Amino acid sequence: MTNCLAYGVHEAHTDLAPLRIERRALRDDDVAIEIAYCGVCHSDLHYAHNDWGSTIFPCVPGHEIVGHVTAVGGAVSRYRVGDRVAVGCLVDSCQQCAACEQGEEPHCEKGMTPTYNGRDRQTGDTTLGGYAQHIVVREKFVLRVPEALDLRYTGPLLCAGITVWGPLREYGVKQGTRVAVVGLGGLGHMAVKLAVALGAEVTVITTSPGKADDARALGAHHVLLSSEPAAMKGASSSFDFIVDTIPRKHNVNPYLMLLARHGKLVLVGALEPLEPIHGALLALNNRSISGSLIGGLEQTQELLEFCAEHQVLPSCELIRMQDINAAFKRMETNDVKYRFVIDMASLEDGEHS
Predict the structure, then answer these.
(1) Torsion (CA) 22, 25, 26, 32 in degrees, nearest 10
(2) Residues facing 3 on adjacent strands
(3) Strands annotated E in 41-114
(4) Domain range annotation of the chain
(5) Helix (H) or strand (E) holding 244
(6) Was domain 160-291 assigned CATH 3.40.1280.10?
(7) Is 187 in contact with 338 (CB distance < 8 Å)?
(8) Yes or no: is domain 2-159+295-352 CATH 3.40.50.300?
(9) Virtual CA dihedral for 42, 43, 45, 51, nearest 10 degrees?
(10) What is the pLDDT of residues 275-312, one digit of tens each?
């Protein structure tokens, strides 16, 4: 086992602070990674605060991890010391069920092992995330970062990016597809960039007129204000595909009305009960509604390759590890465009200050 410096919490509703954690000794199929950057996800805040009542303490958040290989186990064949690599939201799964065999590891029938706040499948130890100097991960769950991608901005692709990439690919978004993105936060801004890169005609749907310029700067072709009834009525039955990134309970009926024949709306933000859905809105135009989590390993690697080829990167603000609590407070008020990324070199600086 090895000891390293990390940031985490020992109880809910306290500030993240430095702590020492243990990483396991290398197993035959393990890869040891020095963490260069780690993205900050809204889930990190929720787990640190135990908002969902399921946090295992101590908790070290972070599941948007990028860095370099420092050591490999005896059976590792895909990576060598020095390679640029990434780790996303999960670090293990059963590898035997139908979901795992079909490359849908997040839907493992026996439960996937999250990068933090989970249990190691062999020892039962709590998994601890990427707000740390290094991490040890099973080779299968390590991704390769293409040379053309800037490591500083790669992390959020592993969560926000893959969350919207999955449905864009599953539903065949391509040149000419009429796509609407509801909400313009961490998920929404990535949906805009990726849909545009796929060749879609992209509209951002927002309640805020002030976000129109931001939406167009990200590549959106149109902006639709959902707070204007006449504009919403005029857009009825005009979209092939809608990505709904609103992260809380809301009324989806106004968005269903915007779907064209055989149109699909996918929820990627709200993980709680929704307001009642009017069945007639689904029957008319043969519309459908579904949900999507994160993608599997193969799909995430595909995303990294696509982003490298098309130079699609999230819009990020780099922060020091010591500024994480201020970043959490800013996230709570949506004061970020559009993702925070921690420069992990600052972690060691703080230890010696």
Answers:
(1) 30
(2) 22
(3) 65-72, 84-87, 90-92, 113-114
(4) 2-159+295-352, 160-291
(5) strand 239-244
(6) no
(7) no
(8) no
(9) 120
(10) 999 999 999 999 999 999 999 999 999 999 999 999 99
